[in-house]
Amino acid sequence: MLRQLPRSLRMTSRLRTQVNYATNSPTGQSQIPVTRALEIGRWAEKLKAAGIEDTEFNLKCIVSHVLKQKFNSVPDSFAQLKFNPGQLADFERFLEARCARMPLQHIVGEWDFMDITLKTSPSVFIPRPETEEFMRLVIEDHKNAKSVDLLEVGCGSGAMSLSMLHSLPQVEATAIERSKAATVLAAENAKMLGLLDRFRVHNHTMEEDKYLPEELKDQKYDLIISNPPYVKTEEFQFLHPEVVVYENLNALDGGSDGLRVARLVFDLACRHLRPGGKLWLELGNDHPPLVKTIMNLKYEGRLKFVASYSDQYKRERFVQIEKV
Ligand SMILES: C[S@@+](CC[C@H](N)C(=O)[O-])C[C@H]1O[C@@H](n2cnc3c(N)ncnc32)[C@H](O)[C@@H]1O
């Protein structure tokens, strides 16, 4: 069952592994049979009417979150489950939020990314499954390096840097992030994962001629990674409500051609990558040919386009560049 679900909707390992509290009522409150009290069918219809496709998965995920019960141990038929009045109120509140298209990741409050679980926060970008594919390529490319000084531009929750640190002990990571909330969340996630000794995050907005914070202005790196905002302004009309309403637009808006922030990253890479160092970028699906042209025309002798790679949907999205 689980393997057939979209990867973007995978539940956290906490949900997978948590002990079963369902039949105990910690407050001693009376319990209400789920089937009678919650009218599950009614909620499934409401979710469908709100445009949510995988209603069964959404319901089960929210039930497991409310009951603090392993996702896999929630039965497909909810007939034997019981909620106390507090849990019932939570369940209805979370489903109302989901009907308003609040992402499941924000309702649950944490989500898996590769082998790590990250806390989420309403104003911080939710890491995407395609970014896991991107990070697998980057990790594969650096697994045999003796040591790697990594810089990430726009770390959000910390997903990319922290998964790299978790996989490769020879990596030291520095990240910059314009959002204060994301900076705090990334540090919290690093602490929660025991990776704070190899991860530093700075609340800094990369701008022309102020690419890095003052204390890093002379630093050089072996590797720069970024999943910058790359949505073209004209494409905003096609985004899902989960994205438009609940994501921070500063995390998405890449300007008229989607490369406004990526172009700053190119200039930053010229200044802060060591010769032979790599720049890896996750971008939109029509960006790689454009990036290749930009490298040839504007950065010849400084940056070299190495290759592009496709995501699981066969969209060419990931770009590898080398410092000459
Ligand atoms: C698409 S999100 C990616 C977040 C994270 N790397 C991930 O993959 O989940 C882009 C991030 O870049 C940050 N950002 C945007 N412009 C920035 C800038 N000029 N300097 C630093 N961070 C920036 C945003 O706040 C956001 O957290």
From TrEMBL:
SUPFAM superfamilies: S-adenosyl-L-methionine-dependent methyltransferases. Residues 117-237 form the Methyltransferase small domain. Residues 43-109 form the Release factor glutamine methyltransferase N-terminal domain. InterPro entries: DNA_methylase_N6_adenine_CS, HemK-like, N5-glutamine_MTase, PrmC_N, SAM-dependent_MTases_sf, Small_mtfrase_dom. It comes from the Eukaryota. Gene3D superfamilies: DNA helicase RuvA subunit, C-terminal domain, Vaccinia Virus protein VP39. It catalyses: L-glutaminyl-[peptide chain release factor] + S-adenosyl-L-methionine = N(5)-methyl-L-glutaminyl-[peptide chain release factor] + S-adenosyl-L-homocysteine + H(+). GO terms for molecular function: nucleic acid binding; peptide chain release factor N(5)-glutamine methyltransferase activity. GO terms for biological process: methylation. Keywords: Methyltransferase, S-adenosyl-L-methionine, Transferase. This is peptide chain release factor N(5)-glutamine methyltransferase. It comes from Drosophila rhopaloa (Fruit fly). The lineage of its organism: Eukaryota, Metazoa, Ecdysozoa, Arthropoda, Hexapoda.
